[in-house]
Input
Amino acid sequence: MAKSQIYGYSDKLSVKAGDDIKFMISAEGTATFKARLVRLIHGDEHPDGPGFLEEPIEAPLDRDWPARKQYVQKGSFLQVADPARVLAPGGAFTLHAYVFPTLPGAGRQVIIGRWSVERNLGYALGINGSGRLEFWVGDGAQADAVAAEPLLMPQVWYFVAASFDSRTGNAVVHQQAVLNRYNSLLSKIVPYDYASHVSERLRVRPGHAGDVRFLIGGASERSEARGEFVSQCYNGKIDRCGVQGGVLDGRELAAISAGGKPGAADILAYWDTTAGYTDRGIGDTVIDVGPHKLHAEGVNCPVRAQTGWNWNGRNDCFRLAPEEYGGIEFHNDAMTDCRWEPSFSYTIPAELKSGVYAVKLTAEDERAEEYVPFVVRAARPRAPICLLLPTASYLAYANAQLSFEADAVQAITAVTPILQDIDVEIYKNGVEFGLSTYDHHADGAGVCYSSCRRPIFNMRPKYRMPAVCCPWQFPADLSIVAWLDHMGYQYEVLTDEDLDRDGIAAIKPYRVVINGSHCEYYSERMMDATEDYLAEGGRLAYLSGNGYYWVVAFREKQPWIMEVRKLEAGSRAWQARAGEHYLASTGERSGLWRHRNRAPQKLVGAGFTSEGMDVSVPYRRMPDSYDPSVAWIFEGVRGEIVGDFGLARGGAAGIEIDRYDLTLGTPPHSVILASSEPFTDNYPLVQEDVMFMHPGMGGTQHPLVRADMVYFTTPNDGAVFSASSIAWASALPCNGFDNGVSRVMKNVIDAFMKVGPLPGKR
Output
C-alpha cells in the first residue's frame, strides 16, 4: 500500500466572524481524510513543559472528505492572452530579446515562444540541453532546430534573435554580447567569442493550435494526470523582447541590439519591460507597447526592479533610471501560489472566540497527519490584550532548507541537526511547495518572495527546527498562547498582515500588545503603526530576539505574498546583486531597518546583537532593577537570577538576543532591568557591528554579546518591556508556568492592563 500523505493550506491566515476561509488539500495513498477544527494552545512536546495541547471545536467541517492529489506549478514565467492568434504567424517572423542566462546548462529552457512540449508543435527561441541558444519549430509530427555555435556564458547580457521565413524554411539564430563595465559578471577583458550568426533551412514549418499558450520563460505541456502545465522554465533575466513580422536583416538587428526600438510597422508584440514603474513599485503585468496590446501576466512572481542590459552602475534604484531596470528575473523553482482547488470552506461563527486555530487532517489509516493553522481575530475588539503573531517572519522562514545544509548550519548553531519525518520526506523528494527567503534558487540567486498560499511544513504545531532542535517561530509562539490561557487573561490575536493592512487601527483598541518570539521581518506600515501606538500611550511587551530587523513589503493586490531583499549587511543567507536593493512591491529600499535609521533600539530599547543555538543562559538582575520605579516588575521573584531554565536550550536568554545601545537610539531614560549571564563563543557579535575582523568577538569575550532586559515609559502613560531573547517565550511554561520568568511576565502584563499611570511613576 502506498504511503499516505496529506498537505494543505488556507486562502487566508487571519479571519473574523462572518468571513469564509477556504482550505486547499492534497492527499495521496488514502481514499478519504478526516478534518477536525481545533484550537491550538501549546505546540512544544518538550517533557519539561505541558506538552502538546489542542482543544477540539465542533464545526460543520468535522467529517470525512474525499481525497485527491493536487499538483504544483513551479517556475516563474509570463503568459500572454492572444485570442486573435496574432502570435501564431503564418508567414515570416522574428523573435528578439535581451537575455542574462543564469543556468544555461540546466536542460532545455524556453526564452520566448509558443511551444507545446508533448506535441512538438509551434516555435520557440530558447536554450538547448548543451547550453546553446537555439530556435526550434514543430508541426506536430516532427521538429527541427538551428543552434548558435558558442555556449552561453552565465550572468552575461546578450542580445538574441531568431527569424524564420515560412516560404523558404530558412531560419537564422543570432546572438551577441552587450557587455558594458557594470552589467555582467564578466568584463570586456575576457577573450571569449560570444557572437554567433547561424542560418539553416529547416525541414518543417511551425504548426499552431489555439490551446497552446504564448509564454515568456516557459513552454506548454499537458499530461493525463495533471492536465496543462508549464515546463522548460527559464533561469535568468529577460529584458525588452518582442515578435516582429518579417525577417529582420543585420542592420535592423544591430539597431535593436544598440537600444533602438523595432520598426513600428511590423510589430506583432513588443514588451517594454521598463514601462509601468511607479514610485510605489511595479506589478506583474508587462506592457506590450505594440498595436495589439498583448500584455503579459506574471505567474509565480517573476522578479521585477532588476537591472537590465544597459545598467551603467551609476543609479542604484529603478526610480532614478527606470530605463536601466528592464531586467525581469525568472527561476524554474519559484512558487508563490499552489493554485489548488478548495476542498472545503468554513464560515467563522460569531461565537468563535479570537485565538489560534487549525484544521487537523488525518488519513483514513491515521498514518498521515497535517495541521492547517489560521487566526481568528475579533470582529469588535473587547479584550485588553492583543497577541500579535509575527506571520511575516513565519513567511520568511517558510519551508527553509537551512537544516539540510549541515556544514553551514552546524558552524552557526553548534548543534547536530535532528530531522523529523517531514524533513526527510521534503529532502528526499525535493521541495514541492516553494522555498524560504533563507534559500537559494537553483541558479544560486536568493529567494526574495514568500507566500502563505502553499503548505508550510515548519509553520505547524509540534514542529522542531532541526538545526536548533527546538520549536521556532509559530510552534514556539504557542508557548505564549498557553501562558495567556493558563493565567486566565482575556486576550485576542492578530497577525502581521492585519497590522500591515489596517495600521494603528488594528492595535489601537488594546491596552497591551504582546509580540511573538521572533518578529524579525517588518513592513514600514507595521513599524509606523507600532511607533504611533506607543507614542499615543500604548503598552508593548516585546518578547522577541532580533526583532524589527529586515525591511519587507506585502504586495498590494496579493497580500499573501511578501518580498524582502538581503543587502550588504546583516545576518543573511544571500545578498542581492549590485543595483537590486529596492523592493518591486513598494519601491522602498530593503535591507536592515537599522540602515534606514530605524534601528529596533529606537522602538523597543534593544536590538540584535548575537545569535547562537548551543545553549541558553539566565539573566542576572542589574542594580537599577531595585529602584522603586521598576522594582515592582520583580515582585515575587527570589534572588538575582531569572530564567535558569527553558524549553529552548535550557535558559530564558538565548537563540537570538538583543542589547541596549544608546548610540543606536535606545531611549536615554530606559532601564536595564537584567542582563544575561555570559554566553559561549558560539555567540559571536552580529555582523553589522564588525568593522574589522579580529579575535575576541565571542560570547565569553565581547561585552556587546549579551541579552538586556529593558523597560522604559512612553508619552501618555505608555511603556515598553523588552525581554530581548527568542528563548524567553519558551521559558514561560516550565514548572507548570510557576517560575521567575512567568512571574516577571505576569507583573508586567498586570500593570500594563490597568488604565492610568504605571506603578512607580514619579
